[in-house]
């Protein structure tokens, strides 16, 4: 099969790999229909997030089951599924306490990061990490379920309440999802994004949602102390997020950025009653609820480009991934397709 493999110099190469087969009783092989290109993937290629050279990248996968192991009982060939790429062992002390996203064996278990992922024609995964799609849910909607699960976890950790003023820093797919979900929950969301393409795309998206009250703005126009909840979906904006938060505000750090640092004065946090919250990606218990919630949310409008595996260089251009540097965006959610139907 064709697969996009991470090279030691942090580039991608299209290679031929043997197609994965069922080896364990709970293995399932999926024919990948499409896989979202995530901000984390972009971060890997730009040196902001670590991944293991030699892995097939890609973790936001949807597709169709083609082969199941002898012990698989909940899935059958032909089922349409979405993958939960945040694997867990179920046995370590964190898993036994229910904190699955802090599984001690998580390193080595993140598909597309340190174990083969889904920028490929086929993907093998254990049965429990695949979820059947509700009837009628399009693959374009389902491909946003994994990011939606992250956003649900982070907004819950940020104690989002109806009527909250929420400022979302970063208007990429994750920022748009945060604003969408905050709006859905009855909060007043402002989305701040410096990139003109992404600002325009976000405005168009929310304008098409009846009843949406999300506003889209430039980051410089967001006033200090104007939000009960600030979500940094970019990663290096913690200091700015603390300025924007009102007294007693909550700040959720959501963007993965290996090199970002911040200087905070503990006395400011204390006097102003600020909470700085890190929630990680998501607890897998949330995933099944994300599949359900996706029934109610027009997620497919976030997908701006479908790029075939063979043309992956176009996806990098669209996401402003130039060798060793970041360039402007000309896309929102880009998905890599393998030629199957949507
Ligand atoms: Zn992702
Ligand atoms: Zn574990």
UniProtKB/TrEMBL annotation:
Spans through the membrane: none
Cofactor(s) needed for function: Zn(2+)
Swiss-Prot/TrEMBL keywords: Metal-binding, Oxidoreductase, Zinc
Domain of life of the native organism: Bacteria
Residue ranges of domain Enoyl reductase (ER) in the record: 9-336
Pfam name, any one: ADH_N
Stated name of the protein: Alcohol dehydrogenase catalytic domain-containing protein
Organism field: Polymorphospora lycopeni
Organismal lineage: Bacteria, Bacillati, Actinomycetota, Actinomycetes, Micromonosporales
């Amino acid at each position: 099969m064709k697969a996009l493999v991470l090279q030691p110099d942090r580039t991608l190469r299209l290679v031929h790999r043997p197609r994965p087969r069922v080896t364990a009783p709970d293995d399932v092989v999926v024919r990948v229909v499409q896989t979202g290109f995530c901000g984390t993937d972009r971060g890997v290629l730009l040196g902001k997030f670590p991944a293991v050279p030699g892995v097939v990248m890609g973790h936001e996968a949807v597709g169709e089951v083609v082969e199941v192991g002898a012990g698989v009982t909940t899935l059958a060939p032909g089922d349409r599924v979405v993958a939960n790429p945040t694997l867990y062992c179920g046995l370590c002390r964190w898993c036994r306490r229910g904190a699955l996203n802090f599984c001690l064996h998580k390193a080595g278990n993140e598909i597309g990061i340190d174990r083969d992922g889904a920028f490929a024609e086929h993907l093998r995964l254990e049965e429990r990490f695949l979820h059947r799609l509700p009837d009628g849910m399009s693959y374009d909607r389902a491909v946003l379920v994994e990011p939606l699960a992250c956003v649900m976890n982070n907004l819950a950790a940020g104690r989002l309440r109806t009527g909250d003023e929420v400022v979302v820093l970063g208007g990429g797919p994750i920022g748009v999802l945060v604003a969408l979900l905050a709006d859905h929950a009855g909060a007043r969301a402002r989305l701040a994004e410096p990139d003109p393409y992404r600002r325009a795309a976000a405005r168009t998206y929310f304008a098409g949602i009846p009843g949406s009250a999300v506003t889209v703005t430039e980051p410089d126009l967001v006033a200090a102390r104007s939000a009960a909840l600030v979500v940094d979906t970019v990663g290096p904006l913690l200091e700015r997020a603390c300025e924007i938060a009102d007294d007693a505000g909550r700040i959720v750090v959501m963007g993965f950025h290996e090199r970002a640092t911040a200087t905070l004065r503990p006395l400011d946090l204390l006097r102003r009653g600020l909470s700085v919250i890190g929630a990680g990606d998501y607890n897998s218990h949330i995933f099944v609820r994300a599949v359900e919630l996706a029934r109610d949310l027009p997620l497919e409008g976030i997908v701006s480009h479908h790029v075939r595996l063979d043309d992956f260089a176009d996806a990098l251009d669209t996401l402003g991934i130039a060798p060793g540097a970041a360039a402007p965006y000309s896309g929102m959610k880009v998905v890599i397709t393998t030629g199957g139907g949507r």
